[in-house]
Amino acid sequence: MTSASARPLPLPLVRHAGLAPRVWLVWSLAAVTAALASDNPVYRGLVALAALNVLLTWLPPGRNLRPLAVAVVLAAAFAGLVNVIASHTGADVVLRLPADWPLVGGPLTVESLAFGGALGLGLVAALLAVAPLSLILEPHDVVDAMPAPLERTGIAVATSLNLVSGFGRTFTAVRDAQRMRGWRPRGIRSWNEVLVPVILTAIEDSVLLAEAMEARGFGAGRRTSYAREAICRWDWIVVAGALGAAGLLIAARLAGTPVDWQPYPTLALPPINPVLVAGCLALTLPAFARAAPARPRDTGDRS
Amino acid sequence: MRRLAVTIVVAMSVAALASLAPRSLVPSACAAAGSHHAALVVEHGDGSVVSRCVAFDASQVTGEELLTASGIAWSGQTFGGFGEAVCAMDGEPARYSSCPGADGYWAVFVVRGGGVWQLSNVGISTLTVADGDAEGFRFVPSSGNPAAPPLPAGICAPASSVPAATPSATPTATGPATPVATGPPTPAATPKPAATAVVAPTVRPTAATSDVAAPGSVASPSFGAIDSATAAIAGVTASFAPTSSAGVAPGFDAPAPAPGPTPGPDLGLLAAALAGGGLGGLALVRLIAMRRSVR
Fold it and tell me: Which residue segment(s) compose the domain that A47 sits in?
């Protein structure tokens, strides 16, 4: 046996149809960091628009955006409303509720409304930034994208989250089955006939899942890998742009450059730095990676 | 259920409208001088001190009303049963996004009948001040025990020496160099109050507000008088020289545009507008294309 034959063969390269899952993970984390690194609504709005463009570009056919849109709108509205009714400061009073009303009593101001809007915009940007992890990637891609120390944690979390939807499906199935047997809801006690089978089924599913994972070696060591991920030029460009955007905002903050927006006591335009605007624009790079030539799914390379 | 919701909405609307009704000015009869007086001392974070003697007719007024009647611009936030807290006063801090601020806050003190400063445990809307009392504010760091401002002794001189405060359209800048307003009385240099004026016009300066007129001091019949008594206490003088304009409460008018060359377009704003417009347009195009492909 020669020394050349003793050397292990290099793992085949797997090229993804789009960006590599690890690149998506880095991009999402960077976008969330950029969205939350300041409370400046301009930067938050740009991050949200960049993430929306990326999402619309890469959204697989058949995926529905409506639940995300509803969640985004509700989160933004809730944040804005809470700030308006709880923060009674600012110069321009729109309405004055009696001061003895708990929490909501006091002046409601334009400034608190604007600041609430900025808070909501931050939530919108953060939600849109992490949306690709669930809407573009498959669950196993997310698990594979995690660093080795977090791999098993990721599997456990993904499995737990999967159980939530499984519980819902079981509940629907058991309730429909009971209805076909003539069951009708008559007060709280009548729900025992649905909840008890649902809980028993959920426990049974959990035991089955645990046995299946045990049989597949979960907890015995690292997952084996038959291929290594190919990182192409666009992957590097996207990673550099995302890290650059987050890094610029953090560096500006550390350097003392005005980044935050302070709406009180009177509304004023937020400070806007053209360099930071350009940094936020760099988060749109994944949208342009789509225009790159399509790559084959699996072109193993053992050379 | 719907009836309950309608009732709640109607009740909230009625309460809100009722609260919008103009409230009587507390020191309403204090056009020249009231029958009672209370001192107000404000010490900034840099040690500069502003003080006022405020006259009022009622037997007692709230700390909020006293502060508002003093003509010092301030901004506050309501904290439920605690009452109104001062977030910014006399331009400190110039801007803020949380109240109380992370770096410092306005601590409130009160003197009852010539005693010593006591830290108030209620907001200024709940705090009451009577004749001979004093209300004090000091901008203190967030950590540690708040130190009290200088004692208010001598701020409220006898009524005969207290000139009536009439809003002046002439900026006054007298005395030595001041930490608040130095140099010529240009709009940019003078009125901190103009930048932070938030007090509702219904409780604004119809009260007789007077700066201290200690013997031998400069006592101008305007908000802009120099408080020499305070200067003696703190070692600095504070000028307060807002201008006045029609339709705006005296002392709280907006500053006129600063003289000099007109600034060009803000590059950051331009970049943000272009970036936002471009990204928004692109997202719209993609959405339309997506809907068409679904059909």
Answer: 11-146+227-289
| A200 contact B CB<8A | no
Nearest to A274 among B18, B20, B271 (CB): B271
Is the pLDDT confidence value at B246 over 90?
A: no
State the CB neighbour count (10 A cutoff) for residue B211: 32
Q: Could you tell me if A26 and A122 lie in one domain?
A: yes
pLDDT score, position A92: 85
- CB-based contact, A291 to chain B, within 8 Å: no
Instruction: Point out which residues pair with B105 in neighbouring strands.
Output: B140
Q: What is the pLDDT of residue A67?
A: 85
Q: Is A116 on the interface with B (CB under 8 A)?
A: no
Identify all chain B residues contacting A121, using CB atoms and an 8 Å cutoff. none
Return the residue of B nearest to A263 by Cα: B97
Do the chains contact at A39 and B200, CB–CB below 8 Å? no
> Which residue in chain A is spatially nearest to B83 when comparing CA positions?
A99
Establish if B13 touches chain A: CB-CB under 8 angstroms.
no
Q: Is A168 found in the same domain as A86? A: no
Helix-strand-coil percent breakdown of chain A, rounded to 5?
65, 5, 35
Q: Residue A196 is encoded by which pair of tokens?
A: 């008890």
**Would you say residue A295 lies in a domain?**
no
pLDDT of A150 reads 80
Yes or no: say if A123 and A76 are a contact pair by the CB < 8 Å rule: yes
A125 inside domain: yes
Rounded to whole angstroms, the Cα distance separating B191 from B242 reads: 5
The overall average pLDDT reported for chain B is 64
A277 and A132: one domain?
A: yes
Which residues, numbered 239 to 278 in chain A, qualify as contacts with chain B under a Cβ-Cβ cut-off of 8 Å? 260-266, 268-269, 271-274, 277-278
pLDDT single digits (tens) B17-51: 444 333 333 333 333 367 888 999 999 999 999 99
Tokens 């034959």 found at? A5
Kindly list the structural domains of chain B, giving each domain's residue range(s) and its CATH number in brackets, ordered by start.
33-234 (2.170.130.30)
Question: What confidence score (pLDDT) does residue A12 get?
Answer: 59
Side chain identity at residue A45, one-letter code: G
What's the DSSP call for residue A222? P
Same domain, A173 and A202: yes
